[in-house]
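Pasting as-is:
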Amino acid sequence: MSLINPVLFSLVLITCFCCFLQLYSVFKLTNHSEKSIPLPETPPLEQTDEEEKNYTEEFLPPVSILKPLQGTDPVLKTNLSSFCELDYPDYELVFCLEKEDPALSLVRELKEEYPEVSIKIATDDNHYGYNPKVNNLIRGLSKTSYDLVLISDADVCPDRTYLKDTAHFFQDPSVGMVTNLIRGKGKGSLGAILESLYLNSFVLAGTCSLYHFFGYTCVTGKSVLFRKKDLEKIGGFSSMKNFLAEDQILGKKFKRLGKKVILSNHLVTSNNSKRPLTKFFSRNLRWSQMRMQLGGLGYLSEMLVNPVFLATVFFILSSFSAFSFSAFLGTSFLKIILDSIEGKMIQAEAGFLPYLLTPFKDLLIGLIWFFPFFKTSVEWRGNKLKLKRYTELEPI
């Protein structure tokens, strides 16, 4: 045990340093000092001055927004209404869901309240595959009118410039997909606060670090924009109907197609208000299982950004010594400060008190991290399925 303690304490220090690196990557990507991809410096030579202006400043192609829905929650109408108020000249909303889904009545209300917005409803009860979200996307794609298609989850609540700031990347014909940085905002329950803290630290910082230090774009299914013609080239949504991590599979297919997959530094808000703690736990368990199947040995590196959990292990294995307890308190305090600074950077608007739950959040995430080594099935929207390599699903 005398050898283990110094090793564990060294790991705690290393993980604290890694958290500083993550904070630096968040600063670089969210303060707009670093563009995800530069706009073309000059348009094609044959364009006139007026066309050049349109090329660089007013690229606003029509967009079809796919909104897969299942069930309702207390803030669903707020989230969906935000898409009816986007500052964008030409777009349509395609809500895709099963025929008897309770969210259908809410969508019909939106059609009455926003008659000026093009709203379509795609419903059927066909079972296309084991991923219920992809089933909805398959339903909705046939209703889309435009080549640019945006996938947006039900809990997304964007600001009015969201589409403008995301679509402009497609001025570059080599760009195949654009995904966004995600921040969490939520209150009204412990689950909502923990979910927001998790999104604004582990998820956001991890996404920024992978992009900034390794040039890897992590595709987030909450916001994915692409051309329909490119989707058809990779086999459409049907090619990922039996995968849990459809967003990551989609990104890999676009890269194999030779298209750029871009991370936009426009922050998109995930509204987690009033989310129950059970949903926080089940969602993060499912996400950890996906990351393990996709990342392989890279999954082990996640412990390098959880100093609170390692400090807790150090405290226990050192027989609750005073030194290890001081290390735990110091690490917890440091992580509270780092997470609160990060929240300030991304304008999470959480105040300071929720960040006092950061050590509890990190302990839960550390415990959940171990589950995928023993649990090979997933429960998702009422279905229990076996999870295989690259998150392929098959019935149990």
